[in-house]
Fold each of these.
Amino acid sequence: MPHPRNRPPRAALAALLLAALAGCEAAPAKPSAPPSDAAPAERLGLMTSLPLYWPLGTGIAALADGTAAVPWQRAALERAYAIEPLDTLSPIPGLTPDAPETDPLAGLDRLAVVQPRGLSPADNVALDKWVRGGGRLLLALDPALTGEYDLPLGDPRRPVDAAPIPPVVARWGLAVAFDEGQAGTVRAEMLAGEPLPLALAGTVRIADPAAADCTIAAGGAAARCAVGKGRVTLIADAGIFEHPELAGENGAGLSALVAAALR
């Protein structure tokens, strides 16, 4: 997917985000209720190229000894969920011919796929099957990330600047487009009753109404679909996952949006 020709530099865009938010009263963060001590945290699968679970550039030693810092996004989400990071969605073969496969989605009711590096054909099949069986999916596919990442293009640790649209999106009757001429400003929308600030968002449309029961939301930047026994919320933007300024105090806006999208 092409990048906008008139897109401002990321540092300038970050300043625009801050300026826009300073005068924006349409997207206050709702206070999140503290989790019950008696109830275990609900499991949430997470697949992403963004530094949501570990900080960007974290070394193996820091991961191994537990000294790596916790990103603000993870801290916000872990107030409600026990996050299970995933590298694949499709079954993993056993180490020996007789060993059973491992299904990374087994036992998960909720899954967030945020700016993934790309889904393999097997991942697409597994994701579709999981959703139709009753899974709740939040899928964020940003056509033009607005965050700053101090890694060169081509570095495998760098987040995907423009999310590839997996074929399963079309299977659910949806299509995602991007307006290269849009202004580099923040706009405030609502999704599932929660504020959703958007920056250089894509546009979601229903391409095949017979494929699923979908409704366009958030001013055209999102869709909510009933697919089989499950539900899909597709957002064509990931700014709220990148910028703490967009996510509310201590990420409360982010955690509230994710919870609402996964209901």
Amino acid sequence: MEQFLAVAEAGSFSAAARRLNIGQPSISKAVAQLEAYLGVKLFLRSTRSLTLTEAGRRYREGAERALAAAAEAEASAREDGGRLAGPLRVVVPTCLARLYLLPWLPGFRDLYPEITIDLETTDHDTDVVASGADIALRIGPLADSALVASRMGRTRMALVARKPLAGLDAPHRFMGRPAIVSRIHHVKNSWIFREGSARIAIMVRPALIVDSDEAARAAALADLGHAMLPRPFVVDLIEEGALVELLPENMIDDIDVWAVLPAGRDQTARVRAFLEWLRQQLGTLFAEGQQREGK
């Protein structure tokens, strides 16, 4: 089964042999024996290509599930013996992963060297159940009530630009200015500001529309307009002087950061350990928001 999956993933017997560090004849023989046992062809072979048959595609899906279940069973057995091991699938916003989680992960690996992190980075709300994720981090309101959610902290937004904007001393003065609009945090072309205890929506003129915080950050650096992003995603550039922070007193400051988990699925010791470790790491990052919430 493992040799079949290696061929299916690599696209050729020779590439699979190199990946598994065994001879190509051994892999070819193993796949041929599997086909004979099943009574079906799993691959369509030609001199130039190797593709899965319909039966091969179905077998691959089942084989991947079987191996994942076996790995989970082995990991659970180790956990019963006091060792945390096995796969942990985590979905994280791109900027949060690049700026913070990836630099932090060596510390987690030092604590739990036998846990394998399967990391997906995306700025969109992945279907946690369908993707097989154990944990997903999300910023802002949660749309799916079928998930188990644990708040990890609270942050604020930041309005940034490559250089200062003369006369910008109130949100309404931003109306009509060129903006980098992210589909992630904004509804159409409206940005939300705070004035005292009230919230106001200001229509902006999109100079660029992007679908990721990473793109919005890069566009602001390229002086394509003003961007509004979670402050942790641009604080390094603000401190370096690469970006200027505008109207900080008018920024929304109660943006929740969540860890969401599939409902009805038992939390493994790996999941609990990762959540506890992550909560400690995020504590410093979101301390400002947490203190404000407690007032």
